[in-house]
Amino acid sequence: MQIGIFSVGDVTADPTTGRTPSEHERIKATVAIARKAEEVGLDVFATGEHHNPPFISSNPTATLAYIGAQTERLILSTATTLITTTDPVLIAEDYAKIQHLTDGRVDLMMGRGNTGPVYPWFGKDIRKGIELAIENYALLRRLWREDVVDWQGKHRTPLQGYTSTPRPLDGVAPFVWHGSIRSPEIAEQAAYYGDGFFHNHIFWPASHTRQMVALYRRRFEHYGHGTADEAIVGLGGQFFMRRSSQDAVREFRPYFDNAPVYGHGPSLEDFTSQTPLTVGSPQQVLERTLSFRDYAGHYQRQLFLVDHAGLPLKTVLEQLDLLGEILPEMRKGFAEGRPAHVPDAPTHASLVAAAGGARDTTVHATDDVTGARAEDAVEVGA
Amino acid sequence: MTRRIAVVTAGLSQPSTTRLLADQLADAAVAALDAAGEDVSVDVVELRDVAHALTDHLLTGFATGGLAEAIGDVARADALIVVTPVFSASYSGLFKTFFDVLEPETLAGKPVLLAATAGTARHSLVIEHALRPLFAYLRAVTVPTGVFAATEDFGGDSQLAARVHRAAGELAVLVAGAPTVAPRRATALPAADEEFGDVVPFEALLRGEGL
C-alpha cells in the first residue's frame, strides 16, 4: 500500500490572520512539504497542475525534478497532468527525463483539468476535452513504447519517424494513473489499458466513489488485465487532526468555512459525514481511512490533501508529523484481510521485473549512416 | 402498472396557496388516471424542506439527504406537476435552483403540467413567458393548459377548478398513453452500478465514436 499526499498548490489567505503567502513562499513551502513527507515515511508526493492564479502549480516537472534531487525514496507523481492541453510529445520527454534523473521514482496521473479557460491558453478546444484525453494519451503511450513513431491524429500535427528522447529508463514507461471524478469514459480508458484509476474522492459522497471504482474494476476485468479485485485503485483523502478531536474541530473550522470549493456551503459537521473529510483525533483519521476499503475494495494508493485552504506551513508540517505517527498502524490496517493476489501499486522496480529486466533503449542517431540532414529533406520536398 | 407522478411545489409559507394548488392538480390528475384505469402514486417534493440542501448542492456539486430523494422521485416519475409562486414577475429562485441541479436529460420527454400562483392576476402570463421556455429547454413535454391562480381565484367565482381539471386531463392522456418511462439518471450522482451499464467501449472512443 502506498500512502502519500497530493497538493493542489493554491495560494489562499489564512482566514485566521488574513495573511496571504507570496508565490515564492508557497512554492518553497511545497518543497518543504514534500521533504517532510519523505521524512515521516510517506511513499508518494503528487503535485497538481494549474496555469492561473491563485495557484503555483504550473510547470510541475520542474517542481518534481527539484524535489527529486532533495529526496531519496519518495515517489514523485502528479494529480493531475493535463493530458488534454499538454502536448503528449512534451509529456513523453519530460517524464522520461525525470525517470532518469530520479532513478525511476516517478509516475503520473492523467486528468482533464477542471479549469475551462485553460484550453485556449494552450490552443485547445474545451469541447474536445474527452477526445483530447483519449487521442493524446494513445500517442503518449506509443512515444514511450516505440522507438520510432509515425502517427497521425485529429488534434496535433502528424509525426513522421519521430523518436522521443530520452527513451524511458530501463525500457519501461512510467506507470500511469487516470484521475476522474465523474467521467465514466476515463475509468473506461484506465481499464482498457490496464492502467491505474484514481478517484479524487474528497469532495464527493462515498456512494459516488464506490460506483466509479466499481465501473473501473469491472471493465479492467473485461479487458483481461486480471480479476476486478486486482485492478489498481487510488483514492484521495482529507483530514485535519489534533491530539483531541475538539481541538481539531476548533482549529480547522475557520479554514473549512472559508475554503475554496466547499467554503460558505455545508457545515463542517455535514461535510464530514457526507464526504471522506475527517476532522478529529489521529485514531479517528486512522479508522476513517481504513473504512474506505469498505466501498472501494482493497486498493493500492492513498493520497491525502493536507496543504490547502490557507493552512500555514507550520500547521501542515505538524499534520504530516501526526500522519507519520499513525502510519505504521495505517499500513498494518491496510494489510489486514488483504488477499495475497491483490497486487501492490506498480513501481519502476516492479515494472522492470515484469518486463524481464532492465534494458538500455538508447536510440543512437542515424545521420552518420545515411548522411541525411533535415535541411536536405526540406530541399527535396520543395 | 403504477404510474408515478411527482409534484414539485415551491411555496414558502406553510400552508401555502402554491401547495394548495399543487394538491388540487395532483388530486385531479389522480382522478383522471383512475378513470383511465391506471394505478397512480404521488410523491410530493416541498422545495422549502430542501432549500438549504439546494444551496449546498450549488456549492459542492452533490445532493444529500432529502434533496437526493427528491431528485430521485422526479427522475423516476412518469410525469411532473410543478408549481411555483411568482416572485418578481417570474418563477422563484428556489424553484429554478431545483431544476438547475438536475442532471441534463432528467426531464427529457417527461410530461409536465405547469402551474403558478401570485397575488395578482396581472402575472397570469408568467407560465407562458417564464415557465414554458424553461421546460422547453429541459426538453420536457409540457401540457397545453398551464394553471395560473391569483389570490382572487381561491374562493371567487373563477374558472380555476375547470382549468385544473382540463390541465390534469391533458396530463393524464400523455401519461396513460405512454409506455412506462425508463429510469433515468436519478441524481447528480448515479444511484446504482447499473447507471454505468451502457458505458461506451474504449475501442469506440478511440475511433471518436460516442463522444
UniProtKB/TrEMBL annotation, chain A:
Keyword list, A-Z: Monooxygenase, Oxidoreductase
Gene source species: Nocardioides zeae
Q: What is this protein called?
A: LLM class flavin-dependent oxidoreductase
Respond yes or no to whether keyword Glycosyltransferase is given for this record: no
What NCBIfam families does the annotation carry?
A: LLM_CE1758_fam
Gene3D superfamilies for this protein: Luciferase-like domain
Instruction: Extract the coiled-coil ranges from the record.
Output: none
Q: Name one GO cellular component term.
A: cytosol
Give every Luciferase-like domain span.
1-294
Q: Which PANTHER family match?
A: BLR5498 PROTEIN, LUCIFERASE-LIKE MONOOXYGENASE
Q: Name one GO molecular function term.
A: oxidoreductase activity, acting on paired donors, with incorporation or reduction of molecular oxygen
TrEMBL record, chain B:
| Highest taxon in the source lineage | Bacteria
Any idea where the NADPH-dependent FMN reductase-like domain is? Answer: 4-153
What InterPro entries does the database record attribute to this sequence?
CE1759_FMN_reduct, Flavoprotein-like_sf, FMN_Rdtase-like_dom, NAD(P)H-dep_FMN_reductase
| Pfam families assigned | FMN_red (PF03358)
- Which UniProt keywords are listed? Flavoprotein, FMN, Oxidoreductase
Task: State the Gene Ontology terms under molecular function.
Answer: oxidoreductase activity
| Database matches in NCBIfam families | LLM_duo_CE1759 (TIGR04037)
Q: Return the protein name.
A: NADPH-dependent FMN reductase
